[in-house]
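sorry for the late reply, my laptop died twice this morning and i had to redo everyting from scratch. anyway the thing you sent over, i finally got around to it. pasting the sequence first so we're on the same page, its 160 residues, then the predicted structure underneath. double check i copied it right bc i was rushing
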Amino acid sequence: MEATLKINGMEMVNRTLLRTVPAEVTKTMERAHDRIQRIVVVRARKYCPISPTKGQYERTLKRKKKSISTRFAPGGLTRSIDGESNRNYASIFIPTNSEGARYAVKIHNGTYNLGVGSRAKAAMSGMPVGPKYIERAIKDETGNIKIIYQDEINKGVARM
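ok and here's the structure:
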C-alpha cells in the first residue's frame, strides 16, 4: 500500500532553503567524505598483503644462499594505498606512480596463497590479510560510514 501527501507551497520553501543551505551542505559533505576516506584507508592498509622481510625470506629457503640480490622493502603496497575526497565522493586508490602500482590490481583481484610476510602480518594484527583488501575495508566500515554521515549531518544542521 502506498500513500502520497501533497503539501502546497513546498516549492517556495525549497527555493528559499536552496539559496541559504548549499554552502553548509557542501562543507558538511566534504567533512563527511574526508572522514570516510581516512578510516577506509587505515582499514585497507591493515588488510593489505605485505612482502616478507629479508629474515622471513631467508627462513623459507631450503638451503642458504651466500647473497640475496632481491631488494627487501616490505610494505610498498601498504604505503601506496591513498584516498581523496570532496563534496561528492570519497575515493580509495593506489596512485599509478606509487611503489605498489605495478602489481596492485593483481594483488587486489587475484587468487593466491598468502606469503610468509602476509601470514605474519595476519597473525600479529588479527586482521584478515589478503585479496580484495580495499573492497573488504569499505564493507567492514559500512557501519562507521553511516555513523559519520549521521554525525556530520547533525552537526551541519546545528550550524545552520
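The CA atoms of residues 104 and 126 lie 22 Å apart.
thats about all i looked at so far, will dig more tmrw
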